[in-house]
């Protein structure tokens, strides 16, 4: 049973697709890596008999009486299928607890939490209560894995809370097995949120580092992967991932002989990236990644998924010799720029300022953040208010 | 023998590469077409015993006594090899007549003229003289075939002057044979100017219309080719074609698995273009050409031969829904934009104004101009001064 007063800071990184977005839909190799930007979850066990879910990033603050949270069917018995292949009456019962959340992102987040709660809960005393607070340094809906990072934190929190895995899972000898468990439930949460995600995002958020991925063949960690400095630029231009994916498919159907070799080229870019990390020279690695970033962006542009905002980011960074590609679905969203070790801070600041001047949000971060982690909080001052107010450096210092 | 007082207006179109530049070096298919923009040559036979070569576009105005123009070896006997594989002493004699021309473009133009003069001249009375004036509406050195167009006009003028072909060659039953002759000598002039040209440029200038070309396989006229409106933008950014070609080759050597499929894709774009012209619907044709223009540019950008000026042209035209690609070597130079039939004049004017505001030169013209042509001038007022001063519309009206 849970020890009384458990207080844990859980965190999981966001992810970025380095190479292969869109091509991955057509069975080409993609490479994704975790980010220094993370989602933080403050879990506190208490004796209120209540459950509080506080997600300030998406304006959610819901509290339920735990004695009220029951379903007519035990969800554990339905765990094997797709989370949303549950009877309509159960869906209706879940909906009833979702309160006045109206935005789709809110509904999905709450639904994912409730689903995992019912799948993972174990018997507890009547007084048992808990609160979950999350905060993310990741922009929401920008293709940087904010939902997978959230899903990973929520799954970890509920697995720890209901004693399926120990709080110190990341330091355990059975770490690999615990991470697999977390990944399985994080994927379920992603399925609630996205329908049919590839599983790439949650895998990166759980395991950290970098992974290559081909549909139907699963994930392979990148051998020799090493951290790199990045500048991420969120154009904040909204876009529909499904429409962009459909656009590429339509182009491939109209011009198969033209588009197929472009997708092949992207496949080889991902492959070359995997090989480049095995190289001994960091300068060579950076040079090759820059070349590949530049070529991959142009090929994505050829597929029709760039956007004037992304081209503007490329123009501005290009003036400083910094190579940039769109990352994720494109059509707006985020761009990633490789910051070589020999680029000085003044240059990076100038680029970031110029991008900010165009109304874009810039994030200086690194590639290859640690996977999901949990730290037992001892200092009483590290409470929920602290989580909400702490700056990124403070959070990073406490979480990893 | 030449009839006394022969006065002829000869003209030949410029050319634009529609698809396949750079890839053509690696044996991929390219498509080129003639332009509405032309080079005009005013040929006048007189009794001065002199030869005047007036090329105001490259600041050349040279006059020789024809009795002075003789070589120690008859160049006709050396006609089969490369024009510049002639003995050093002959080269030196040619050099001696070139006057104070110092710029390379000037030297090449005069050398090409002198070479063809010696290869094509026939016996004439002592009083025989002639003058050649040329003027081009094509920008020089912008990849629009200004040299091939000049070479075609000069070859035609000397062939007509020395009665190797009739002035009315273009209306003759033996037109095909005459055009082949012109093309053979135009290619020689191009060899003098460029060393080892592919022969694509002069072929387009001589035959007009559109041709597909694969190195080692020669030229095929495009079936069903039809004229299209174009906007050509000269960024006026100077570049080295050979350095750009070498850059692509280096990239292909460093990343063969990535670059080869990009070149394959470009090959298929050219092929698709050839197929598209066979289509019955002009709307479908324009749509496909726009798609292909957009994709081909992005692939050229991936090969590293775009330039910020070209991207700016694409940004500006893109704001008006007009599709643009670089044409020729890239790295600056010219961009071509497809102007669909349903684009109104105001839009095209706005685009052109905005481009001019950035310091670019814009040319509204059509694709698929008539090949080389010659018109006997009857009106005495259509003299050399007229040629120099006439506007483009007047020249076009008299030349074709």
Key structural traits:
12 helices, 2 domains, 41% helix, 400 residues, Ribosomal Protein S5, domain 2, four-stranded antiparallel β-sheet
Q: How would you characterize the overall build of this protein?
A:
Two copies of one chain form a homodimer. Chain A has 400 residues and is α+β, with helices and mostly antiparallel strands. Chain A folds into two domains: 7-222 and 369-399, Ribosomal Protein S5, domain 2 (2-Layer Sandwich); 228-367, Alpha-Beta Plaits (2-Layer Sandwich). Chain A contains twelve helices and twelve strands. The longest helix of chain A has 21 residues, at 256-276. The two termini of chain A are 26 Å apart. The model of chain A has no long low-confidence stretch (mean pLDDT 92).
Computed CA radius of gyration of chain A, to the nearest angstrom: 21 Å
Strand count, sense and barrel status of the largest sheet of chain A are:
8 strands, mixed
Q: Count structural domains of chain A.
A: 2
Helix content of chain A: 40-55%
Order of helices and strands of chain A: EEEEHHEHHHEEEHHHHEEHEEHH
Low-confidence stretches of chain A: none
Please give the alpha-carbon distance between the first and last residues of chain A: 26 Å
Shape of chain A: globular
């Amino acid at each position: 049973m849970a020890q009384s007063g458990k207080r844990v800071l859980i965190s999981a990184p966001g992810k970025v697709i380095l190479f292969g977005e869109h091509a991955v839909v057509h069975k080409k190799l993609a490479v994704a890596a975790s980010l220094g930007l993370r989602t933080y979850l403050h879990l506190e066990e208490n004796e209120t008999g209540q459950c509080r879910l506080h997600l300030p990033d998406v304006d959610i603050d819901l509290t339920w009486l735990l004695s009220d949270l029951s379903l007519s069917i035990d969800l554990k018995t339905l765990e094997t299928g797709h989370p949303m292949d549950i009877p309509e009456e159960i869906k209706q019962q879940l909906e009833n607890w979702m309160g006045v959340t109206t935005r789709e992102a809110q509904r999905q987040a709450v639904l994912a939490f409730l689903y995992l709660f019912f799948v993972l809960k174990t018997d507890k005393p009547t007084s048992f209560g808990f609160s979950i607070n999350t905060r993310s340094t990741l922009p929401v809906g920008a293709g940087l894995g904010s939902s997978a990072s959230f899903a990973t934190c929520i799954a970890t929190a509920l697995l720890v809370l209901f004693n399926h895995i120990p709080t110190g899972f990341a330091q355990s000898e059975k770490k690999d097995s615990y991470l697999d468990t977390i990944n399985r439930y994080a994927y379920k949460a992603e399925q609630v949120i996205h329908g049919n995600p590839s599983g790439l995002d949650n895998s990166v958020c759980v395991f950290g580092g970098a992974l290559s991925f081909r549909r139907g063949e699963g994930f392979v960690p990148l051998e020799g992967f090493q951290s790199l400095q990045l500048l991420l630029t969120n154009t904040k231009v909204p876009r529909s991932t499904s429409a962009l994916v459909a656009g590429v498919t339509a182009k491939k159907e109209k011009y198969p002989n033209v588009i197929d070799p472009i997708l092949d080229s992207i496949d080889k870019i991902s492959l070359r990236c995997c090989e480049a990390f095995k190289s001994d020279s960091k300068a060579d690695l950076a040079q090759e990644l820059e070349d590949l970033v530049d070529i991959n962006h142009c090929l994505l542009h050829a597929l029709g998924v760039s956007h004037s905002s992304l081209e503007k980011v490329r123009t501005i960074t290009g003036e400083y010799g910094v190579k940039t590609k769109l990352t994720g679905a494109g059509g707006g969203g985020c761009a990633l720029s490789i910051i070589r070790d020999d680029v000085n801070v003044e240059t990076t600041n100038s680029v970031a300022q110029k991008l900010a001047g165009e109304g874009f949000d810039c994030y200086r971060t690194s590639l290859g953040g640690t996977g999901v982690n949990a730290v037992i909080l001892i200092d009483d001052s590290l409470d929920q208010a602290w989580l909400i107010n702490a700056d990124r450096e403070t959070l990073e210092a406490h979480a990893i």
